[in-house]
Amino acid sequence: MGRVLLAAPRGFCAGVDRAVEIVEALLERLGPPVYVRRQIVHNVHVVADLTRRGAVFVDEVDEVPRGAVAVFSAHGVSPEVRVQAEELGLDVYDATCPLVAKVHAEALRYARDGYTIALIGHEEHEEVVGTRGEVPDAIRIVDGPWAVEGVKAQESDKLVWLSQTTLAVEEVQRTAAALRERFPQLVDPPGEDICYASQNRQNAVKAIAPRCELVLVVGSANSSNSVRLVEVARAAGAPAAHLLDDGGGLREEWLAGVRTVGVTAGASAPEFAVDDVLAVLAGFGFDDVEEVNAADETVVFELPAGLRPPRA
Fold first, then answer.
1. pLDDT greater than 80 at residue 209
2. How far is CA 248 from CA 145, 218, 244, 268, in A?
3. Is residue 192 over pLDDT 90?
4. Residue among 24, 106, 126, 127 flagged as catalytic
5. Which of 3, 146, 168, 284 could form an S-S bond across to 228 if both were Cys, CB 3.0 to 4.6 Å?
6. Are 122 and 128 in contact (CB under 8 A)?
7. What is the number of alpha carbons within 13 Å of residue 217 lying toward its C-beta?
8. What share of the chain is helix, strand, coil (3-state, %, to 5)?
9. For the whole prediction, is pTM greater than 0.85?
10. CA 167 to chain CA centroid, nearest Å
């Protein structure tokens, strides 16, 4: 009846994999409870699985019993949170994605050198909140080209832009271009801030979207990189694109008149959720699956020293 174009890579990116493994290793070695500030990654299945195994997710560290084990999520935290955890005597394990930590380090360095930092990102996203917390007086949040007016020219002759790691590449480029039009002295960051996994998945969606009447993105609604994939799919030519956590979210009416469905996944979506979507599609007659590989991901981030398995 129909065919499926399955975009690869899929499965966890290195930063998500490391964060989840930190919580899993602590549960195995220490037993529950292990407290985690905010969702370790933005995926309902991951959070539910770790909760079943004894992880306790809290909004703030003051909800963690004094002296207990606590994990900071992959999205990073502000220095204020670190100080609060230290005052509570918490045994902290930091699961901040190294790519997010790189943006924190860049913000600190540019602020130290007297720059105003235009941070391209969504103001309430945890990653942006953590980065802004490093140097709040130096950072101006720019949530798209329309927000460039919020950066005042007189604040600094030295202006640099950085970005949230999970945005769509084109979104960041448009905002940086709007900043440069207003501030010709704008300095580019030393390297790409967009997560390599977000870039790879966006490239994969661009490859399949023009060939599909419908693109399904497996990921949770609070996952920024998953939401961006829906936007990228539509911009790349897919007449329709929807976000769903698993096969249970697939609506039969979406398939009306569709011959080719594209399937992709956010960087925090587990592979079993993708397999579940494929199984439901097969039940509707979409059982001819072609994998379209846009990139091979070989990046690995090591666990903290105290959690690494012994070397053979």
1. yes
2. 36, 11, 8, 18
3. no
4. 127
5. 168
6. yes
7. 31
8. 45, 20, 35
9. yes
10. 8
Q: Which helix (H) or strand (E) holds 218?
A: strand 214-218
Residue matched to tokens 């030519």: 237
Residue 297 has pLDDT above 80, yes or no: yes
The answer to whether 61 and 81 have CB atoms below 8 angstroms apart is yes
Residues forming a β-bridge with 141: 119
Q: How many CA atoms lie within 13 A of 242 on its CB side?
A: 17
Place of tokens 């790519």: 99
CA–CA gap between residue 111 and residue 106 (Å, rounded) = 8
**CB contact at 8 A, 3 and 259:** yes
Annotation says 124 is catalytic = no
What are the DSSP E strand ranges found in 186-306?
A: 214-218, 240-244, 260-265, 286-293
Question: Which residues neighbour 232 within 8 Å (Cβ) at sequence distance 6 or greater?
Answer: 168, 170, 202, 205, 206, 209
The whole-angstrom separation of Cα 86 and Cα 70 is 11
Model pLDDT, residue 153: 60
